[in-house]
């Protein structure tokens, strides 16, 4: 949480110290100014979290209404609630795919490559693979979340995707 604060404070701090050097000449004035900047950035960060929490609350309410309308049995409702809670814990309400989806193609490719290439390179058969093919694979990787006791793959089901399981427990 401190990194976003610092990133927001730093440009403002540089601009103010450049234009009004007198303000930061005394120790007390400089300390008060820095405290003000910290509080300002903390407010922008908290406000962002509050908005995401409210969005989650509305989404949860919509899901409850939908489940009720479609008469889902309680066991399915509980699984859906667990999934949404787990997804929130993992992402804090930030949809990374949405953030990257609308970027220019070259920037999206570079970001996806940064996020995914290390994962792909841990697979021995991909180590010597062509760079363009690796870029295409990185572009198509999507995060997925499964809750405890979910079936990711069942014996006999057709295979239509490649999965990289990052953590979890294996059960038969």
UniProtKB/TrEMBL annotation:
Domain Cyclic nucleotide-binding: residue ranges: 125-172
Main localization of the protein described in the UniProt heading: membrane
Subcellular locations according to the entry: Endomembrane system; Membrane
Keywords: Ion channel, Ion transport, Ligand-gated ion channel, Membrane, Transmembrane, Transmembrane helix, Transport
Source organism superkingdom: Eukaryota
SUPFAM superfamilies: cAMP-binding domain-like
Topology relative to the membrane: Multi-pass membrane protein
InterPro entries reported for this sequence: cNMP-bd_dom (IPR000595), cNMP-bd_dom_sf (IPR018490), RmlC-like_jellyroll (IPR014710)
An annotated GO BP: monoatomic ion transmembrane transport
CDD domains membership: CAP_ED
A single cellular component GO annotation: endomembrane system
Protein family: Belongs to the cyclic nucleotide-gated cation channel (TC 1.A.1.5) family.
The protein's name: Cyclic nucleotide-binding domain-containing protein
């Amino acid at each position: 949480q401190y990194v976003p604060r610092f990133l927001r404070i730093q440009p403002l701090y540089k601009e103010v110290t450049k234009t009004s050097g007198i303000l930061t000449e005394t120790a007390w004035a400089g300390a008060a100014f820095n405290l003000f900047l910290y509080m300002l950035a903390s407010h922008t960060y908290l406000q962002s979290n509050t908005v995401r929490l409210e969005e989650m609350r509305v989404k949860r309410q919509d899901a409850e209404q939908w489940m009720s309308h479609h008469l889902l049995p309680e066991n399915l409702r509980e699984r859906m609630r667990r999934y949404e809670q787990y997804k929130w814990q993992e992402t804090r309400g930030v949809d990374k795919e949405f953030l990257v989806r609308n970027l220019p193609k070259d920037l999206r490719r570079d970001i996806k490559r940064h996020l995914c290439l290390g994962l792909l390179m841990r697979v021995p058969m991909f180590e010597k693979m062509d760079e363009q093919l690796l870029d295409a694979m990185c572009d198509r990787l999507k995060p997925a979340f499964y809750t405890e006791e979910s079936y990711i793959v069942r014996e006999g089901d057709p295979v239509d995707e490649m999965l990289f399981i990052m953590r979890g427990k294996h059960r038969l």
